From TrEMBL:
This is Capsular polysaccharide biosynthesis protein. Residues 53-293 form the Capsule synthesis protein CapA domain. It comes from Brevibacillus reuszeri. Gene3D superfamilies: 3.60.21.10. InterPro entries: Capsule_synth_CapA, CW_Biosynth-Accessory, Metallo-depent_PP-like. SMART domains: PGA_cap. Belongs to the CapA family. It holds the Pfam family PGA_cap.
Length: 364
């Protein structure tokens, strides 16, 4: 009996030991001496680099035929299809291609002169637009009076603005914003200004001109000292052409050499391609977004540009295809969107655009 008891006790101890060994093996997926298990654990503990999600759109204006439609449909009508996109990111930036005022003196000797109602600005804010660029060839269509009213309307609705100011210091100054621990500097400059009188001066309200890049370069260099990520909104180029002209390329390189991490352009009223320089992205033209419906079909093509950027200034871009209908941005269907992605890829410089709109640099 004693001998049998000892045998049973020994078998019980062996069974418990075997159970514990199998249990440990199953939990670890290997023996505790397997270095790969430690590598996986260490890798999982490495925190992901924080990123900020920025959204950019092209020309926005609520004048003429657009205003007529908004008076019928409501001032929130332009953003019905994009509000959810704007509200889920960290910061949304548009090019405001109009003064917002009830006053002003219309500019002379211009084919198109815009003036938008103040009611449009609360609708922009409600849709998720956080900042606008005013450095363009329409912000002073109603003179200094109209420009100052625009500042007031934006300030009242807590929409930041760049590229214009009560004097040159404010016009060239960046707007700083911090999101997810990443400090962003946003600036705006224009190389398309109808009159020298529109230039911001020492005591003169106006726009940040960049025919000579010196002041813009200085502003970018200063911003880089105070921000992790420097974004420039540029108004430049030639209307209704697919490719950037020489001054766009020259200015883009000067801005990036000065410290810009991302450049988003406008003015041509059509989409232009993407290019990467010194590992920094340039989107040469965003085209129209909330605008009138021109005759030329290319002006109907638009996009929402999403940029996911790190604290070190690396950005991943993704284009979402849209149509610029009369006064409203509307998503393209799958077939039209795929065709637009292919077209933009074809006019870009050493770039591949994937089916989901992700913009990638070709590597030689």
């Amino acid at each position: 009996m004693v001998q049998n008891t000892l045998v049973f006790s020994l078998l019980a101890v062996l069974s418990v030991g075997l159970f514990l060994a199998v249990d440990m093996f199953m939990k670890n997926g290997s023996s505790t001496d397997d270095p790969t298990s430690h590598e996986a654990t260490d890798h999982e503990n490495i925190p992901e680099e924080p990123t900020v999600a920025l959204t950019f759109v092209g020309d926005v204006m609520m004048s003429g035929n657009v205003e007529k439609r908004l008076l019928e449909k409501g001032f929130d009508f332009p953003f019905a299809h994009v509000r959810s996109v704007f509200l889920q990111d960290d910061y949304t930036i548009a090019n405001l291609e109009t003064p917002v005022t009830l006053r002003g003196t219309p500019s002379e000797n211009k084919e198109f002169v815009y003036k938008s109602a103040p009611e449009s600005v609360p609708a922009m804010k409600a849709a998720g637009i956080d900042a606008v660029n005013l450095a363009n060839n329409h912000s002073m269509d109603q003179g200094v009076e109209g420009l100052l009213d625009t500042f007031a309307a934006l300030d009242e609705n807590q929409i930041a603005y760049v590229g214009a100011g009560k004097d040159a210091k404010r016009a060239y100054a960046p707007v700083y914003v911090e999101k997810k621990g990443i400090r962003i500097a946003l600036l705006g400059f224009s190389r398309v200004i109808p009159e020298v009188s529109w230039y911001a001066g020492k005591n003169q309200p106006g726009l940040a001109a960049t025919y000579d890049p010196e002041l813009a370069v200085k502003a970018i260099q200063e911003a880089k000292k105070n921000a992790d990520l420097v974004v420039v909104i540029a108004h430049w180029g030639k209307e209704k052409v697919d490719f950037p002209v020489d001054h766009q390329k020259m200015l883009a390189r000067a801005y990036i050499d000065a410290g810009a991490d991302l450049i988003v352009g406008g003015h041509p009223h059509v989409l232009q391609g993407f290019e990467q320089y010194q590992d920094k992205w340039i989107a040469y033209s965003m085209g129209n977004f909330i605008f009138t419906r021109a005759v030329e079909p290319k002006t109907w093509d638009s996009m929402v540009l999403q940029a996911t950027c790190t604290k070190t200034g690396d950005c991943h871009l993704k284009m979402l295809p849209y149509y610029a209908e009369l006064g409203q941005a509307v998503p393209m269907n799958d077939a039209d969107g795929a065709a637009l992605i292919k077209r933009i890829e074809s006019i870009s410089e050493n770039v591949t655009i994937e089916a989901d709109g992700s913009v990638l640099a070709k590597r030689s």
